[in-house]
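Recall that a protein's primary structure is simply its ordered list of amino acids. Everything else, from secondary elements to tertiary packing, is in principle encoded there. The following example makes that idea concrete.
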Amino acid sequence: MFKIVFFDIDGTLLNQEKIIPSNTLKAVLQLKQNGLEVVLATGRAPHHLTAVSEQLGVNAFISFNGAYASYKGKTIQAIPFNKTLLGKFIQYAGKKNHPLVFSNLEKTVSNVMNHPEVIESFDSLNLNYTPEYQPDFWHKEEIYEVMLYCKAHEEEPYKKLFPEFSFVRWHPLALDVIPATLSKATGIKAMLEYLGIKPEEAIAFGDGLNDKEMLSFVGMGIAMGNSHQDLLPYADMITRSADDDGIPYALSKLGLI
């Protein structure tokens, strides 16, 4: 019997217009009424979850692609970047003139001022937020998220030089940089252990390349109809797209709403 459902945000809960469709909202609220735990599982920072979490009435999340997990205000997992390794990475990106964005638990900043690629990528998330310029931020703060701005053909040297990181493209101009030991699945594992729930009692919905491990780890991994093609082999079920009521369709098929 399923007890908990993890939802990716962008492209899963949110449709192409970056809103939660009304039928999806109803389905998630019904799921909660039926006694299942609902958790957000995202690459976003906690301070970029507020609108979605308030709309759904959800106070549990996996953020920063698994580096941070929180349940009803209690921190379950917090794993920041290694500063020495991060310093080497920043130095290399600087030589290549590739902008970087950093997040701690409270804010997101950039090491380049008002860079058009950074602005464009954040506009695509509909956050009404532009990272402020703070080049030394990473020195002083615990960093949980790094974004690298480069074209697809420029990313290969990073993968060769920094095997300690995974690189997941979420925008034509931007990649998430993730410690190779972390994924959404590691955050989910910590959450499940805290709640005393088995992986086979969990469901996860996702659409992106950073959802592979998550869909593989839980008992029922569900890929959205609009998913990246490379995610599909990791799914137990493929539902409709986020714009075509994919979440309510799958939850109904599973008899959960």
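The CA atoms of residues 7 and 123 lie 22 Å apart. The radius of gyration is 18 Å.
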